[in-house]
Amino acid sequence: MANDGDDPDAAFRVRNGDYVVLKRGDVYKSVQIQSKRKVVFEKQWFFLDNAVGQLYGTTFEVESGGTLKPQAPKGTQSASDAKEAGTDNRNIVDDGRSQKLTKDDIESLKEKGLKGQEIIQHLIDNSTTFRDKTEFAQEKYIKKKKKKYESSITILKPTARILALMYHGREWGKVCHLRYDTLAQMLTLGNIRAGSKVIVFETCAGLVLGAVMERLGGYGTVIQMYPGGGPTRAGMESFGFPPHFHDTLYEFPLCKMNALLGGKLDLESKDMDTNHSTSPLTQEMETSSEVPGVKVDEEDRKERERRREMKSQEKKLKMEEKRRKLALAAAQLEGRNADGLVIASRFHPCPVLLGLLKFLSPSRPFVVYCQYREPLIECYTKLREQGGVVNLHLSDSWLRHYQVLPNRTHPVLLMSGGGGYLLTGTTVAMDAPKTSGQPKTEEPSAKRMKLQEAEGSA
After folding, report:
1. Residue ranges of region Disordered (predicted)?
2. N or C terminus of the chain with fewer C-beta within 10 Å?
3. How far apart are CA 95 and CA 226, in angstroms?
């Protein structure tokens, strides 16, 4: 293969170490290209070594031994061409006797090295009812058999849409049932664009975070608010972003949000157990582990002390790195000049939303996703009482796929029951926050003047 400088398609070729998405039919799987690594996908194992250097979007055939071979372009003629077809299916009885080939016969065909298309042709030739079916029924039969017997795999470049389809198709619980069309609305309504500073709080395995970073394109700032001990970024890592994308990403624990808002954030206060390499209890346990009456070698004691010092140094470096990241993220938040807020979490969004809104500049959008409507209704009510936001809008997503084929275009019978709910709005500057017990404000001066004139004339 030519050098990257001579190849105009170098950016679109698969390289070793890249994250890719495998596709077979409507099933997706995200993997990393590694040499001599066995991958299991749809009950089939293979190696991805031969995919290196090929263009993204290439379809491969899985051969014996798990090797991949680029699939040759198929002709326009299908297995059903030049076959007679019936006028209707009313006389066809599905009693399981129409296929002469047994399961053992099909297995023997596979052992002989026959490919999927050849096996399908044998099934067609040994079917007593295939020629009596209508043309549409024949194509449906062939499509079903291709899905079962053809061992072709397509390698795709990860994108927000493809990864959203992957998670929603197989692991929708990890992404809070977030659908790809709802994710697209979140990016649009949140005005995510290059050069903006966005605050993201999500528990969707990093899918929303990765989609935001993809939209920024490496220009701007992303501040990830996370619950618990550390951020979750499995979905974001599946995008395979270049290193300079990660330079725009900051992380800040949600438990320290109130301390930062109150100006009481202490970057030096950490757990004492993490500052010291070994606690007195641990040292006592190590000392007591020595066998009584047996003289401990001086070299062994020095080796243990050296390992203890190395562990202490590693922990100290980790704590310093954690403090550094915390200080950088706090500096980004202290300005309270973020350009957008995106929330998609399994937690109740109301307290998180009310706290994070304080970090946004005026006239900035925010969007909150929730699988259920009731938590967003509570957020809507609280924001109306508190003030500081305008253009509040609560909406739900609805999506239906259509089959578009000649003489048989119709909605797909199976569809998603719901795509969740979105609460959107825009922040505004406010002199003082509203309170429930605040007395009624005075009438406008123009209205007072009119009332005084009316009383005087009376």
Report:
1. 66-97, 271-319, 432-458
2. C
3. 57
Q: H-type helices in 270-342, by residue range?
A: 272-275, 280-288, 298-334
Other beta carbons within 10 Å of 164: 25
Domain closes at, from 133, 157, 181: 157
Per-residue pLDDT tens digits for 363-420: 999 999 999 999 999 999 999 999 999 999 999 988 888 989 888 899 988 888 788 9
Cβ atoms within 10 Å of 6's Cβ, excluding its own: 8
CATH number at residue 102: 3.10.330.20
Domain limit, last residue, from 336, 363, 392:
392
What does the DSSP assignment read for 437-452?
A: TPPPPPPPHHHHHHHH
pLDDT in tens, 129-164: 888 888 888 888 888 887 777 778 999 999 999 999
E strand or H helix that includes residue 251: strand 249-253
- 69/19 same-domain check: yes
Closest CA to 208 of 239, 247, 242, 230: 239
240 and 132 in one domain?
no
Q: Tell me the per-residue pLDDT of 261-304, one tens digit each, with 9 for 90 and over.
A: 888 887 776 543 444 444 443 444 444 444 555 455 778 887 88
Most confident of 4-13, 186-195, 317-326: 186-195
* Tokens 């991805």 -> residue: 48
Cα 95 → chain centroid: 44
Residues 47, 72, single domain; the answer is yes
Other Cβ atoms within 10 Å of 290 Cβ, number: 12
For residue 286, being part of any structural domain is answered with no
- The DSSP bridge pattern shows strands 249-253 and 68-70 to be unpaired
The domain tally of the chain equals: 2
The conformational region for residue 25 under phi > 0 = left, psi -120 to 50 = alpha, else beta, is left
Whether residue 429 is contained in a domain is answered as no
Give this prediction's pTM: 0.79
**Residue 30 and residue 163 in contact, taking contact as beta carbons nearer than 8 Å:** yes
For residue 15, the enclosing domain spans 1-157
Q: Which two tokens stand for residue 151?
A: 């061992």
